[in-house]
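Sequence, please.
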């Protein structure tokens, strides 16, 4: 989908096309690890009741277009690229009985010791093994929005390179 029309206004979605990022030397046998990054419709929409929707997501659930999320999505490809390049920390979250990964993207990795409880901008994502043709791992960003984070409740953190390699070597979805 290259564009979407909401209330007679067309919005460009080309920034949400899949991109490939390579991590030098992190693949099998010292090869580069190629990560295909894709973006879900939750990056530009919010949940809503049936009948109030502008669109349906990948699971046929009604969604309402969000100007705020759309505006933030314009920078998502660059943020996702930086998240991998700079080896951001991430956590596993259980949300509505589903586990998923998330990364706090409003705090640079070098300042991780300064994380304070509160509202942070976070990216939610899954990792899947890829076919190996153009990528080794698929990173699917399902959503990105502000969230209240209480770091003292988080038992374990990972860096994204660890999770990418786990997905590659174990050939299974993470989480």
């Amino acid at each position: 989908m290259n564009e979407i029309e909401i209330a007679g206004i067309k919005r460009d979605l080309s920034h949400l096309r899949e991109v490939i990022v390579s991590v030098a030397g992190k693949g099998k046998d010292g090869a580069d690890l190629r990560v295909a990054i894709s973006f879900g419709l939750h990056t530009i929409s919010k949940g809503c009741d049936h009948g109030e929707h502008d669109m349906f997501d990948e699971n046929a659930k009604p969604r309402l277009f969000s100007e705020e999320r759309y505006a933030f999505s314009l920078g998502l490809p660059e943020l996702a690229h930086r998240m991998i390049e700079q080896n951001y920390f991430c956590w596993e979250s259980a949300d509505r009985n589903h586990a998923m990964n998330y990364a706090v993207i409003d705090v640079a990795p070098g300042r991780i010791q300064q994380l304070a409880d509160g509202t942070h901008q976070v990216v939610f994502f899954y990792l899947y093994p890829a076919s190996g043709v153009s990528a080794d791992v698929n990173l699917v960003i399902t959503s990105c929005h502000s969230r209240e984070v209480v770091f003292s409740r988080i038992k374990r953190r990972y860096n994204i390179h660890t999770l990418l390699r786990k997905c590659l070597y174990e050939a299974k979805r993470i989480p």
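The mean pLDDT is 86.
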